[in-house]
């Protein structure tokens, strides 16, 4: 059971089989993941009851969680009572609110991309904590290029800007990949450090050399109209980013499971020694995987930059990159799973504001719920891994007796 | 054994000395270019720099405690990237306990009790990390991420619920300890002693923790066992050391150090709490641990270096404490982010092996499986 130490010379490395839960069929995986999600929501419900009691003049109200979660769904998907709902579906007595749904999809878009960035790394046995920095690089590069594409029409300008974002993210993935392959520096530590380097240096750039002189707060200039990702549906804030994200997810699925390169990546993740024996160069795969993973997070940053913020604010308080870790794990590092997990987290993100407005429960409850889901996923994977071992132990004990 | 310990000690010194040497060489080079400048520079070094030592120690204290937590965990083979979360939790618990207990037990005691509760809270959260990574054998990076997310969400949630709406304010901060006035008049050495010991109880205890842990880690039975478990758990197991127990103990005790570092922020440095106020100090602590090659004294030296860099962005930019001449102008022209990035860049460089590779304990991050044959 020695964990592969690879070329690092230093301890920790990711064992994909423990992360991806290869044991059990699809149905079982869905079941176990659902249990983790339910567990997270249950802990959230307990905290909601507690927070109701802690509020001034509050009492223990065991119905409050249902009210709160209903308010969350209102803000994320459903037609909200008492609020003006834009969108045809609501007006015709429908259930789905296009405006809320658009916000949910927009919140899911960057989560899909950073989730893919982390998941893609897992497949090659790499722990890419750097999605946050890669996301920021992508947002900065895309908005900076987008601001300078004067007179370039829509699809071309947006495509160029997204490409710039992908390249920016790729650079921030290449660095830890190269440091791991050539110098043996562990990617977990280097990516953590690079996240801070990215945030601080981009803050400096947006505050100084690239600051928009006309803006009231420090930010880069607004992007040109041609680079803006349009909102195709009337009354819905949804922009084209979600389509890009789904397309990339499909491409990642194809790359991982239908191409030679994908096979090589998964082989390196499963067993680098065997991979080398089979003529695969693990170092090259390491660099390639990190670079591609970085470009995915970079596209996420580009989608957010071109669709939502339209510029790069110097104080960019976002946690999309870090949330990508939870999304990738909940999605079992599979592109389809990642999309599903990102949609779930998107619902929580988009609906939390509505929940706070209606029930006075702090918005941060969703962070706790996400943390608990991740905790259950982390514990659950291992419980399953321990099952065969426990059986084997019983067998050997029986043999000894 | 002695030779080994000295060798290890020398190896961290080499790193610290190398950095110091480069700094001195640069300073000398700057001086050689302009000889009359020398007088002004020496004057600055003797009269303007020592007053900033106190600030450097204040910056270095939470970093160093985070690094000590890292050393405790990783020397026994458990990676802990959740230190940031432990510190945030501790900072919040210390603040909350101080605020609630202030009217009941009086000011200095409330803060002290707050520190106690903070250490307990941090140790409890560490127990979760220990359980996940040692017993459950979950991925230690994921476990660390869980702790960071839960701490960020939990502190922000209860901060909004209990503090923001009620306008609860923290108790008074822990008083600084006074040391004899005669000591401060000693040139150069006086300010150093003043900086290290004219602090609140947490910052003052840091130097004791560092030296104590250094001696224990390399000279005691506990230290030998810890290092054995971190380097080769199977060998340790065969001579009768309980690998799981040693790891549990180290992770939980290490959490205590992180708790002290977190409590420092809300009981000694200030008496208020803001969401995410640790601002990456736990990660800089990891960097200091790596830069200090997983030794307490080395990590402390690295924390001082990083603390100096962070305080430099404040002190070197105001005219009264800026170095004279062109060096002063150069420092004043550097963006503040430059000083913020330096600790992270230095760590990447060290990990890449450009200045002499940093090598973690051999079994760092690998769950120990008693049943396995390898």
What does this structure look like?
The complex is a heterodimer of chains A (401) and B (374). Chain A is built from 15 helices and no strands. Chain A has one domain: ABC transporter involved in vitamin B12 uptake, BtuC (Orthogonal Bundle). In chain A, helix 3 crosses helix 14, helix 9 runs antiparallel to helix 14 and helix 13 crosses helix 14. Chain A has 401 residues and is mainly α. Chain B has 374 residues and is mainly α. Chain B has one domain: ABC transporter involved in vitamin B12 uptake, BtuC (Orthogonal Bundle), CATH 1.10.3470. Chain B is built from 16 helices and no strands. In chain B, helix 3 crosses helix 8 and helix 3 packs across helix 13. The radius of gyration of chain B is 22 Å and the shape is globular. The chains are: A mainly alpha (401), B mainly alpha (374).
Integer count of domains of chain B: 1
* Strand content range of chain A: under 5%
Fraction of residues in β-strands of chain B? under 5%
Mean pLDDT of chain B: 84
Largest interface: A-B, 66 and 58 residues
N-to-C span of chain A: 25 Å
Defining key terms:
heterodimer, A: 401 residues, disordered N terminus, B: 374 residues, ABC transporter involved in vitamin B12 uptake, BtuC, 16 helices, 74% helix, globular
Helix-strand blueprint:
The complex is a heterodimer of chains A (401) and B (374).
Chain A (H helix, E strand, L loop, with lengths): L15 H5 L5 H29 L9 H13 L11 H4 L6 H26 L7 H18 L5 H30 L3 H21 L33 H18 L1 H11 L1 H6 L4 H28 L10 H11 L4 H25 L5 H36 L1
Helix pairs in contact in A: 2-3, 2-15, 3-14, 5-9, 5-12, 5-13, 5-14, 6-7, 6-8, 6-12, 6-13, 7-8, 7-12, 9-10, 9-12, 9-14, 10-12, 13-14
Chain B lengths: L1 H32 L3 H12 L4 H23 L7 H23 L1 H29 L4 H25 L16 H4 L4 H9 L3 H19 L1 H11 L1 H6 L4 H27 L11 H11 L4 H20 L9 H9 L2 H16 L23
Helix pairs in contact in B: 1-14, 3-8, 3-9, 3-12, 3-13, 3-14, 4-5, 4-6, 4-12, 4-13, 5-6, 5-12, 9-10, 13-14, 13-16, 14-16
């Amino acid at each position: 059971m020695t964990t592969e130490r690879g070329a690092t010379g230093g301890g920790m490395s990711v064992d994909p089989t423990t992360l991806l839960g290869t044991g059990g069929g699809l149905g079982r995986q869905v079941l176990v993941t659902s249990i983790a999600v339910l567990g997270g929501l249950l802990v959230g419900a307990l905290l909601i009851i507690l927070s109701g009691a802690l509020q001034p003049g509050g009492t223990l109200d065991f119905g409050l969680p249902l009210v709160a979660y209903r308010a969350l769904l209102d803000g994320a998907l459903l037609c909200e009572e008492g609020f003006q709902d834009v969108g045809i579906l609501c007006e015709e007595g429908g259930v789905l609110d296009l405006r809320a749904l658009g916000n949910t999809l927009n919140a899911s878009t960057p989560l899909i991309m950073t989730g893919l960035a982390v998941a893609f790394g897992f497949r090659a046995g790499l722990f890419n904590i750097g999605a946050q920095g890669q996301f920021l690089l992508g947002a900065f590069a895309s908005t900076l290029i987008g601001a300078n594409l004067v007179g370039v029409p829509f699809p071309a300008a947006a495509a160029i800007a997204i490409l710039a974002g992908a390249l920016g993210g790729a650079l921030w993935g290449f660095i830890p990949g190269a440091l791991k392959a050539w110098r043996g520096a562990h990617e977990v530590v280097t990516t953590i450090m690079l996240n801070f380097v990215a945030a601080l240096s981009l803050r400096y750039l947006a505050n100084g050399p690239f600051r928009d002189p006309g803006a009231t707060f420090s930010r880069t200039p607004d992007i040109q109209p041609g680079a803006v990702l349009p909102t195709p549906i009337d009354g819905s804030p949804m922009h084209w980013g979600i389509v890009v994200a789904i397309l990339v997810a499909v491409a990642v699925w194809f790359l991982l499971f239908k191409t030679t390169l994908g096979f090589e990546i998964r082989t390196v993740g499963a067993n680098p020694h065997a991979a080398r024996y089979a003529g695969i160069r693990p170092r090259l795969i390491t660099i390639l995987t990190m670079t591609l993973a970085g470009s995915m997070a970079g596209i996420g940053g580009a989608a957010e930059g071109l669709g939502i913020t339209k510029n790069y604010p110097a104080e960019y308080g976002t946690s999309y990159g870090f949330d990508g870790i939870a999304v990738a794990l909940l999605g079992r590092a599979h592109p389809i799973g990642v999309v599903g997990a990102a949609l779930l987290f998107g619902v929580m993100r988009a609906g939390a504001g509505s929940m706070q407005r209606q029930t006075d429960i702090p918005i941060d409850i969703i962070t706790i719920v996400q943390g608990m889901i991740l905790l259950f996923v982390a514990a659950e994977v291992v419980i399953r891994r321990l099952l065969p071992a426990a059986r084997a132990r019983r067998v050997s004990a029986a043999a000894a007796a | 054994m002695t030779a080994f310990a000295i060798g290890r000690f020398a190896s961290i010194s080499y790193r610290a000395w190398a950095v110091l040497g480069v700094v001195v060489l640069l300073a000398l080079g700057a001086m050689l270019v302009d000889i009359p400048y020398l007088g002004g520079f020496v004057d600055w070094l003797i009269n303007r720099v020592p007053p900033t030592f106190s600030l450097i120690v204040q910056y270095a204290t939470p970093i160093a405690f985070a690094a000590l937590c890292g050393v405790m965990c990783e020397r026994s083979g458990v990676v802990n990237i959740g230190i940031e979360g432990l510190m945030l939790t501790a900072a919040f618990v210390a603040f909350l306990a101080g605020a609630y207990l202030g009217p009941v037990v009086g000011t200095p005691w409330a803060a002290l009790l707050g520190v106690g509760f903070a250490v307990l809270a941090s140790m409890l959260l560490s127990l979760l990390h220990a359980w996940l990574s040692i017993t459950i054998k979950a991925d230690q990076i994921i476990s660390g991420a869980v702790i960071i997310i839960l701490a960020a969400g939990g502190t922000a949630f209860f901060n909004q619920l209990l503090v923001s709406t009620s306008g609860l304010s923290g108790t008074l901060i822990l008083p600084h300890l006074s040391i004899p006035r005669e000591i401060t008049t000693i040139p150069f050495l006086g300010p150093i002693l003043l900086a290290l010991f004219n602090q609140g109880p947490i910052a003052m205890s840091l130097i004791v923790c560092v030296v104590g842990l250094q001696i224990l880690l390399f000279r005691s039975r506990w230290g030998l066992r810890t290092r054995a478990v971190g380097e080769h758990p199977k060998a340790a197991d065969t001579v009768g050391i309980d690998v799981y127990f040693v790891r549990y103990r180290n992770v939980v005790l290490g959490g205590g150090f992180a708790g002290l570092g977190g409590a420092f922020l809300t009981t000694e440095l200030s008496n208020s709490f803001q969401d995410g106020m640790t601002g990456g100090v736990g990660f800089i602590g990891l960097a200091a641990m790596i830069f200090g090659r997983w030794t307490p004294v080395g990590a402390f030296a690295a924390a001082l270096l990083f603390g100096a860099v962070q305080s430099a962005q404040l002190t070197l930019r105001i005219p009264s404490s800026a170095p004279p001449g062109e060096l002063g102008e150069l420092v004043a022209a550097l963006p503040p982010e430059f000083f913020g990035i330096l600790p992270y860049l230095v760590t990447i460089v060290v990990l890449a092996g450009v200045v002499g590779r940093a090598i973690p304990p051999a079994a760092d991050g690998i769950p120990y499986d008693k049943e396995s044959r390898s």
